[in-house]
Design goal:
With 294 residues, the chain is an alpha/beta fold. Helix content is 27%, strand content 33%. The longest helix has 14 residues, at 153-166.
Length: 294
């Protein structure tokens, strides 16, 4: 998946600024950052740089939302309540502005003041430097991928799923089920995944992760279940239940490392559960991966 499909979300004058860049420079963009009254920024290798000198307007932001929702704010209302929207191609649009709150719940976001477009892309083979270490002999072990936000956890998880599903290095394909609550892993469009998740993978999108895990377990008898970002106690409970039913679990979490998760209640329920921990960091601007066993 190229950055070109994410560029289509931008207003025309910003599209032209991006297309004037060299191909290598353009394809390295990880995020677009639009803030009202400020020049649009592009994030590469973790650093934000100005994309143009012209300040972003509220009309520019409205245009981004209109394109992302295909002109139907009502259809996207549930996602927008959470401050983001996953669009065709798997790209994620995050919004800032004024939250409209009723009875303690966010209903929508109005007076949008900023937008972040996180570019989704396949990076085939991203996990190959370490993926063999997720096995203990013939057995794939429960694995957790950890990093701070914006470091590529979802991209890495997607490649792990694809490698396991397709089989690699003499290892046979495995049945994988994906609880893709936000539609970022498969980016299905009319039922067809737009991103590579392997040949033996079943996906359930738009369903809360804990519910999706149990539905996939009952309906597809997967050997492996994958889910992005453990965020709630129900997620942890579903992971343990699925494990008792014989599935291997692979998931991601925000954090600086395993020690960082030990202080959070939701992860205390999973203390010692994951036998492989993959941590993503940076060295000289490049991503580096480390694997620890427990």
């Amino acid at each position: 998946m190229s950055v070109r499909s994410a560029i289509r979300l931008l207003p025309r004058h910003l599209q032209e600024s991006v297309l004037c860049l060299g191909e290598r420079e353009r394809e390295s963009i990880e995020e677009f950052r639009l803030r009202a009254g400020r020049p649009c920024g592009a994030v590469r290798r973790g650093a934000e740089e100005p994309l143009s000198k012209t300040p972003v307007t509220t009309q520019d932001l409205s245009r981004v939302i209109e394109v992302a929702t295909q002109g139907s704010m009502h259809t996207a209302a549930e996602s927008l309540r959470q401050g983001y929207l996953t669009v065709s191609g798997g790209h994620r649009l995050g919004l800032g502005g004024t939250a409209v709150v009723s009875c303690g719940e966010v209903k929508t976001i109005r007076d949008v003041s900023s937008a972040t477009i996180r570019v989704a892309r396949d990076v085939p083979g991203a996990s190959l430097p370490f993926i063999e270490r997720l096995w203990d002999g013939k057995n794939l072990r429960d694995t957790l991928i950890i990093s701070p936000p914006g470091m590529g956890k979802t991209t890495l998880l997607r490649d792990v799923i694809a490698q396991i599903s397709n089989g690699f290095g003499g290892r046979p394909p495995m049945r994988v089920a994906v609880a893709d609550e936000r539609g970022e892993l498969a980016a299905s469009w009319l039922g067809q995944p737009q991103l590579d998740i392997g040949a033996h993978t079943d996906v359930l999108e738009g369903c809360p992760k804990a519910t999706a895990v149990m539905m996939l377990l009952r309906s597809h008898s997967p050997q492996v279940i994958a889910l992005d970002e453990i965020t709630a106690p129900a997620d942890a409970e579903a992971i343990r239940t699925a494990s008792h039913c014989g599935a291997v679990l692979i998931a991601t979490a925000h954090g600086d490392g395993a020690g960082d998760l030990d202080t959070r209640d939701v992860y205390k329920k999973l203390n010692g559960f994951f036998k492989r921990i993959v941590t993503i960091g940076r060295r000289n601007g490049d991503r580096v991966y480390s694997v620890s066993a427990s």
